[in-house]
Each structure stands twice: as structure tokens, then as C-alpha cells.
Amino acid sequence: MIQFVLNSLKIIQYQILYYFLGFFAIIDDLKNREHNKFNIVSKRGKVAVITGGARGIGLEVVKKLAQCGMHIIIGCRNIEAGQKIFQQQIFSDVSIEIYELDLKSFTSVSRFAQKILFRHNQVHLLINNAGVMFVPYEKCEDGYEAHWTINYLSHFLLTELLLPVLKTSGSNNENARIINVSSCAHEASPLIDFDKISKRKGYIPTAAYAKSKLAQLISTKYYDKKLSNSNVQVLAVHPGIVDTELFNGTLLKKTMPWILRYICKTPEEGSRCITYACVSPKLEGHGGYYANCQSVKNLPYADDDKIQLELYNTSKVMVEHFLM
């Protein structure tokens, strides 16, 4: 009974914290609206890989990368649905490949990477975009909690598998880039307890989501330092508070769905900073954390060298079977 009460209080605490974070993030989006702009940059002949590119923000990113002339490889769970979308007239001249990718499965991630590497000897851009938010407790195929697996760990594995080709695709004049779509929600995360990542007891969806987004940011900071001399740079992006399917099931969507149209960015607006991080020459050689096409601050915890290394080593152990 006591544990139930304590857990209920924590849930309320997270709800309040999210409302505060969301409020200030919306204010920031409105205040910096004029900075949230994307300019087309020619990237003809370059290859981009994106997860979750068939809907929401990811689809809008694909549209912008297509305007840049890139060849785009999309990983999505439902290939048939993705193919229907990209059969539209707007994509008639766009060079696109679509492969199955289920981020709940490391086997699926590995197969996706193998298909890419079999067909391409260069990858200039990796966008780790797909994700889930506030889902009920679930252990995925490989034994880890869903937020951790889908938002962070499967993308970590994909990054590791594609890293060799990313390194050889970058040059002294133009780095290859890895973009992790994170969130201001990382600020709500408790410090990561690596021994309790997938525990069911005391599970709180809002805490699990925040933790996965913090892990993305910590990983970004670690990789960007680690790869500083290898023609690869790594950036994390908070796209803003965007009205997408991620809000399905949330209290706000259930009680006041109409309000999201007025206070949130559209998926197109949310895609601008992501695409800016992907192609802007202004960011050449500059990794880090961005929102509204500007560098922003993150939790100091994400900059701790020991935490970064512990997360990296722990993550490698979790996926080691698929890195052999």
C-alpha cells in the first residue's frame, strides 16, 4: 500500500514537471519562431538514412531532404503503408528506398543495417528519429523496456553498425552527421540507474520516456567527442512541442485535443530544426544540442564524462551479440 501511494505521488510529480517543461518549451518556440527556419542546401548524390520517416515529423524531414537532392533510405515498421505514402505525386522525382525496421527487435535493426551496407558503400547522414512516448510497460524482444529499446538502445545499435561507413563517407571538407531526435523532456529524467533500466516495479511511463531522451542526449555528447577526429559529427535536436501521434493517449490529448492545434508546432515546423542540423553549413564541425535552429543548454548531467562512458559501455554490453 505504501509503495502504491509513493508511486502515485511520483506520477503526479512527473505530470506537474512535464506541464512546467511543456509550458516553457512552448514559450521558447513562440519567442524563437523567427529563428526556426530551414534553407535548402544542395546535397545531391549524398545518402541519408532515417528511422520513422513515413509519418509525422520524420515524413516532413524526408520532404526537406528530398528538396536537397539526397537519396533517402527509410526504415519503418509497415512497409506497405510507407510505400503508399511515397507513391504520391509529390515524391515522383524523389530517390527513396524503404526497408522494414522494427525498433523493438535488435534482429530487425541488424537486418536493416545489413541491407543498407549491402547496397551502399557511403552513408552521409543518419537520423535517429523514430520513437514512442508514455507507452504502458512492455519488455521488448531482447528483454529491455520499450522506451529504452525503441527511443535509445536500438538507435545506439544502428549507429554502431553504420559507424564504419559514416566515417569513410565524411571528409575534411564535409563531415558525415548523426542526428538524434531528443526532447526537452530529458530535463524531467531522474539520474540513470543502470541496474534498474527495465524493472517493472515502480514503472512510470513519463519517467521512462524522459530517461530514454536523456540517454540519447548523453550518447550524442559522448559520440561527438569520441568522433571529433574522424570526419563525423553528432548532434541532438529538440524539435519543439509538436502535435503528432506521440501525444495519443496523453491526458492533454484525451481531455483537450483541440488545444494542441493552437499551442503546438505542426510536424512541418518541428522538422525544420532537425533538417537544419542535418544539412546546414553553419553547423559544420559543431555538434551539440539544438532547438529552434539554435544551440541550447541541456542538463549538466549529460556532460559528465564518467556518465557518458558508463552509458556507452553499458549499451555496448546490452547489444554486444549484434555487434560481432
UniProtKB/TrEMBL annotation:
It comes from the Eukaryota. InterPro entries: NAD(P)-bd_dom_sf, SDR_fam. The keyword Oxidoreductase applies. The keyword Oxidoreductase applies. Keywords: Oxidoreductase. GO terms for molecular function: oxidoreductase activity. It holds the Pfam family adh_short. Gene3D superfamilies: NAD(P)-binding Rossmann-like Domain. PANTHER family: PHOSPHATIDYLINOSITOL-GLYCAN BIOSYNTHESIS CLASS F PROTEIN, PHOSPHATIDYLINOSITOL-GLYCAN BIOSYNTHESIS CLASS F PROTEIN-RELATED. This is NAD(P)-binding domain,Short-chain dehydrogenase/reductase, conserved site,Short-chain.
